């Protein structure tokens, strides 16, 4: 976590975001959290809970109405120009859908090498290519993939390319917005294993947004639960999963299907009488 | 082929089903000899990953893909669906087998009211407008839609994702089919809504003695829903077993790897999920 004196890699303070046309409803409503160096924080919630908007505020893709985002102690909500760019380099993003997040007209070499070029990390073409190969190898790809286009890769491989692209500039923190939600279970398993490896090898911190509570349990030591734009619970993995304090967290956990027939049958009785016209999507 | 089901025969009996699609490179075979039976009132899950052929198998039962070249037999109440004329197949859809798709937004007509859509299976079979409406409103209420009489005249965009999926289920079951085929019915839904939709499907199946063939990649939802599970890969069923047996002691290595790949709350965090295969051959077709 927070080593003495060093600021956390990421701190979100009282973030608020409202979208036009939704007067009165705050997509993100006074959200605060920190991510320590090398730490993995999971952000869970249902669709519309504000978890993706929070991630986008932190990544600088959406400007919050108020509140601050500090990266390594630097306030990026106010920074401009070169200082902003240098800080931004420390935080990279991986999106859910590797079919739309990779430019179909760029080769793998261009996709992964772009950050190295833009940030002036490796201006020399040949050396940039070497560096790109090294990065590809950390995600389980290699030199033979350099000159191919995204279309010739499967979903899991595309997500590896997206991760390589994010890793290229040597970030301290990856923000991942549902990075395995669109993958098959066996491919999801491999990408989750890759995240575990990367954290171990590179000491990478993660802000991991997911709706799948089991995936977050697998990967994140700390968990924030969002509902209606607010963080309703924030705590260590053990506490949140075994002794949740907020009824919403409990409701979410109760609904997680368990791959165990006997446990599921036992649970079915407990869940049963569904109150008529109870729609969690409409009773927020 | 007998036109009358024999006593004790399965409701759905798929035998040696093959399906291929014409491509410029020649026919691509996606289902390569599937045998699967569903008894009346039984809940069976067909599990597999993308490209395994599970959806194609399900869609073949209602002959939904005009391009598909099929072989083998699909006996529904003793009659071979693959031998039917298009007119006969239309009589099967909805009345004898209903279908629920994954994406409720894509499977609903955006310019028609949900009521119109739910009553179609009855209307085309000659049920009067008033009676059809009465039954549709009843069913919507039964499916947990609040104020069903008013919602009957709403359009799909006025419903949330979970409510839309209830509408899709209503369309599939209003004509009281004996078999419901549900193709990834909860994949697009949040976990609490998913739990409710599965329960509704299960309750409805119990009440009506309706059989359900659930197509999914999610072994979590299968455990609570199905009594029997068939695991499909590369167009073939690699293992079929009672749900308890399959989860406790899967006999096929692929089934085991699928079960191992699912992270579970309660497991040691960070345990290896994937089989130790080279990263570049992740078992997916390129």
UniProtKB/TrEMBL annotation, chain A:
Gene Ontology MF terms: ATP binding; ATP hydrolysis activity
GO biological process: peptide transport; transmembrane transport
Top-level taxonomic group: Bacteria
PROSITE patterns: ABC_TRANSPORTER_1, ABC_TRANSPORTER_2
Matching Gene3D superfamilies: P-loop containing nucleotide triphosphate hydrolases
Domain ABC transporter: residue ranges: 10-253
Region of interest: Disordered: 263-284
Keywords attached to this entry: ATP-binding, Nucleotide-binding, Transport
Family stated for the protein in its record: Belongs to the ABC transporter superfamily.
Protein name (record): Oligopeptide transport system ATP-binding protein
UniProtKB/TrEMBL annotation, chain B:
Topological type in the membrane: Peripheral membrane protein
Main location, first listed in the record: membrane
Highest taxon above the source species: Bacteria
Domain ABC transporter: 14-259
Keywords: ATP-binding, Cell membrane, Membrane, Nucleotide-binding, Transport
Keyword rRNA-binding: no
One protein family per Pfam: oligo_HPY
Cellular component annotations (GO), alphabetically ordered: plasma membrane
Record's subcellular location: Cell membrane
A single BP term in Gene Ontology: peptide transport
Keyword Aminoacyl-tRNA synthetase listed: no
MF annotations from Gene Ontology: ATP binding; ATP hydrolysis activity
Family from the record: Belongs to the ABC transporter superfamily.
Name of the protein this chain belongs to: Peptide/nickel transport system ATP-binding protein/peptide/nickel transport system ATP-binding protein
Lineage start: Bacteria, Bacillati, Actinomycetota, Actinomycetes, Streptosporangiales
